[in-house]
Amino acid sequence: MATIDPYRNDADVLEIGELKIENGADTVAVYGSVNLTRDRHGLAQAKALKAVLDKVVTALEAAKDLPDHIAPPKPPDQVENPFR
């Protein structure tokens, strides 16, 4: 079962169904969707999602210098389209 090491790098991406989990040094982004069907495949996806979220919670609980709140990441600068 693939997983990530939360907050360790800005490169890891994990997909569960169409749900994407992107690792970052300050954030773990979760977006998209996954249908947890009532079958073995749905169970496997639910376990994978739970494993990732359990690791995120463990990493946050272990942090000694956890601030009350950090600002969300800034969107990248937009560059004017040179083809217009």
Overview of the molecule:
The chain is of the alpha+beta class. The protein has a domain at about 15-60. Helix content is about 25%, strand content about 20%. It contains one helix and three strands; from the N terminus they run E-E-E-H. It has one helix spanning about 40-60, and strands at about 15, 20-25, 30-35. The protein has a three-stranded antiparallel β-sheet with strand order 1-2-3, covered by helices on one side. Strand 1 (about 15) and strand 2 (about 20-25) form a beta hairpin. The model has no long low-confidence stretch (mean pLDDT about 90).
Topology:
Layout: E1 13-16, E2 18-23, E3 28-33, H1 40-62
Antiparallel strand pairs: 1-2, 2-3
> What Rg do the Cα atoms give?
16 Å
Q: How many strand segments?
A: 3
Gross morphology is: flat
Number of helices: 1
Distance between the termini: 46 Å
**Beta-strand residue percentage:** 15-25%
Query: What structural class do you assign from the helix and strand content?
Result: alpha+beta
User: N-to-C SSE series?
Assistant: EEEH
Largest sheet: 3 strands, antiparallel
